[in-house]
Design goal:
By secondary structure, this protein is mostly helical. It has helices at about 15-25, 30-45, 50-65, 70-85, 95-105, 120-125, 130-135; strands at about 110, 120. Strands 1-2 form a two-stranded antiparallel ribbon. Helix 3 packs antiparallel against helix 4. The longest helix is centred in the middle third of the chain and has 18 residues, at about 50-65.
Length: about 150
């Protein structure tokens, strides 16, 4: 569960995000079919030892950030390890690429046109200020896929 100092956003997975972010949209047939197909593809994707190391390091960091009275020194050390791993991943595996796709769709996706994007991701669904931030005039937005002339 979220700590009071992370009430708007927590770096760790929690039930608030799952229940308020994902649950309301999972009943949509097209969306749930997408998630099922995504899971089927993900189950067959190749991963690497670096992927597993990154996941473990990020999980450790998330736990440290959500523990009441955690040692700030350990949190800084864990942050450095995560940053180091992210900078030294090398060629991304199939699993890493799918992870990125998931992050920018299911978690933080926007759909529609560039002038008036709509919320698609569960991470945006919880926090109104993020939508305001994304929709400010002058904020650069680019389509995921560019059309070639």
């Amino acid at each position: 569960m979220r700590q009071i100092h992370h009430i708007e956003y927590t770096p760790a997975p929690d039930i608030v995000h799952e229940a308020a972010g994902h649950a309301p949209i999972i009943v949509d047939r097209e969306y749930s079919n997408y998630l099922q197909r995504f899971g089927e593809v993900g189950a067959k994707a190749m991963s690497s030892k670096k992927d597993l190391s990154s996941i473990k390091r990020f999980a450790t960091l998330s736990i440290l950030k959500e523990q009441p009275n955690s040692d700030p020194r350990k949190s800084r050390e864990a942050t450095k390890l995560v940053e180091h791993r992210q900078k030294n991943l090398g060629e991304p595996s199939e699993m890493a690429l799918l992870s990125r796709l998931h992050w920018w769709t299911v978690e933080y996706g926007l759909i529609g046109n560039l002038e008036s994007p709509k919320i698609y991701g569960a991470g945006f669904a919880l926090i109104d200020w993020r939508i305001g931030f994304m929709s400010r005039a002058g904020r650069e937005k680019e389509p995921l896929l560019s059309r070639r002339d």
